[in-house]
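Late entry, guanosine-5'-triphosphate complex.
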Amino acid sequence: MENTFTDLSHINVRGGDGGAGCMSFRREAFVPKGGPDGGDGGRGGDVVVEADPQLSSLIDYRYKHHFKAERGTHGQGARRHGRDGADLVLRVPVGTVVRELDPATQTPLYDIADLTHPGERVVVAPGGAGGRGNIHFVTSVRRAPAFAEKGEPARDHWIELEMKLMADAALVGMPSVGKSSIIARVSAARPKVADYPFTTLVPNLGVARAASGQSFVLADVPGLIEGASEGKGLGHQFLRHIERTALILHVVDVTGGYEGRDAVDDYRTINAELAAYASELASRPQIVVANKCDLPGTEEAVERLRAVAEADGHAFFAVSAATGTGLDALVTSCAAEVARLRAEAAQEAEAAPQDLSERWELERQRRERAFSIAREERHAWRVSGANVERMVIQTDWDNDEAVAYLQHRFARSGLDDALARAGAVNGDEIRILELAFTFEGDRRDEPAPAADEKDLAPEDVVEDGTGDGERS
Ligand SMILES: Nc1nc2c(ncn2[C@@H]2O[C@H](COP(=O)(O)OP(=O)(O)OP(=O)(O)O)[C@@H](O)[C@H]2O)c(=O)[nH]1
Ligand SMILES: [Mg+2]
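Prediction complete; structure with ligand written out below:
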C-alpha cells in the first residue's frame, strides 16, 4: 500500500459548454414566412465528485489533472432542443475533502464538501446553460426575433482533493516505539519494521478483528516528535489523518528507546503535540499502550505510566508486539470502544446532517453576480465579473437585435445604474472582455454624479491631463 498512497491532488475541472440556441423560422408550403421556431441549446454536463467505497487512494488524479464534462448540442429548427451533455463523475475515496483553490496561488480558499459517506456527491463544476432559441424573444413589438442566444461557456477552476484516512483508530507515538510492529501483529498489514526512527514514511491501514467478531480499521502513522505540530519530523502532514480517527492508540516505549528517554515524558510530549495541532485532539478518546513489556527492567516504567494514564482518564494496556502479550485484550477493548464511538457519530450525523454543497453553491452564485467597474480612461470604463461577462459571451455581436437585447438586460440588471453612479455619461465607452460598446444608460439628462474616488486609478489623472474627451 505504501507506494500507491496518494492523499492530495490539485485538479482543474470544467463543466460542459452549453449548446447554442437556434435562430430559425417555420417553413411551410405556401406560407412566405412562418413564426420563429428555433430550439434551445442543450445544457453542458456537470463535473461531479462522488465518494466511492471501493477506492482507497487518489491515484487516479496524480497524473491527469484536467477534467471536462461533455458539451450540450445546439438547438435546431422546428423547436428541436439540443441534447444535454453527460455529467463527468470523478470517483474519490470516502473521506475526501474537496476545496476551492485560489487559481493564482493554488492555496485553498474554502471547503466545498467533505464526502464522508459512500455515494455522497457534490457538483464541483456546473455545465453551462444552453442558449435560448429565438422562440423565446417574441414580444408584442418583436414578432420575428432574428437572433438567438449563444450557449453559456462553462468556466474552469481548480480544486483540491484531500483524502483523509477513514481509520477508526490510529496508532500514534514517538518513532520506533513499535507502532508498525503492533499493526503487523493485529492485522494483515505488513509495514516495514526496523530499529531506526522514521521507518514508516506514509500511513498504513489494517483491519483488526477482535475475538468477539467486531472489526475496525487501524492506521499506523509515521512517528511524531516534539515540534511535530509546527512541522518538525515527518509526522506533521499526517496529523490531519489523526483528526479523522475517532480513537487514538497512544503507543509508548517503556524502555525509553535508544536515547534512554522516560516513558511518562514521552507520553506527555506526544499529548502536547496533539493538543498544539488541534485542541480537540487533546480530548479525543485515547487508549494508552505501553509496548516492549517483554524487555527486562520495564515494570517500574509501566506502573508509573499506568498511574498517569489512568489519572488522565484513559484505558491502559501493557503489551509486547514481540511476543504478542496483551494484544488480544487491547484489540477487544478497541473494538468495543470503536463500536460505541461509531454509534455515537451516527446519531450525531442524523441529528445534524451536513450539506456543504448548498453553501458552496450560494457562495459561487454570490461571486458570479458580483461585478466591478474601473475607469480606464476619462470616458472609458471596464466592467468585469463572471455573470456580466457571460452575458456578453452569449451575445452574437454581429447581430444588431441581439446587441439591443443585451443592452436591455444591462439596464434591467442594475449595471447601467451602477455605471451612472460611478460617473459614466452617455457616449462613454464601456469595455467588457475584448468588446466595447457605447453607454446609453444615463437617460436622465442631468449631470452625472461625481465619480466615486475608489474607482479612480492613478493613471486616470494622467489621462485627464491630455484633455481627452471633455464632454461632461
Ligand atoms: N523487544 C521488543 N522490541 C520491539 C517491540 N515492538 C517493536 N520492537 C522493535 O522496535 C523497533 C521499532 O519498531 P517499529 O514497529 O518499526 O516502530 P515504529 O513505531 O513503527 O517506528 P517508526 O515507524 O519509525 O515511527 C524494531 O526494531 C522492532 O523490532 C516489542 O514489543 N518488544
Ligand atoms: Mg513504523
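Residues 1-5, 443-472 have pLDDT under 50 and may be disordered. Will revisit in the morning.
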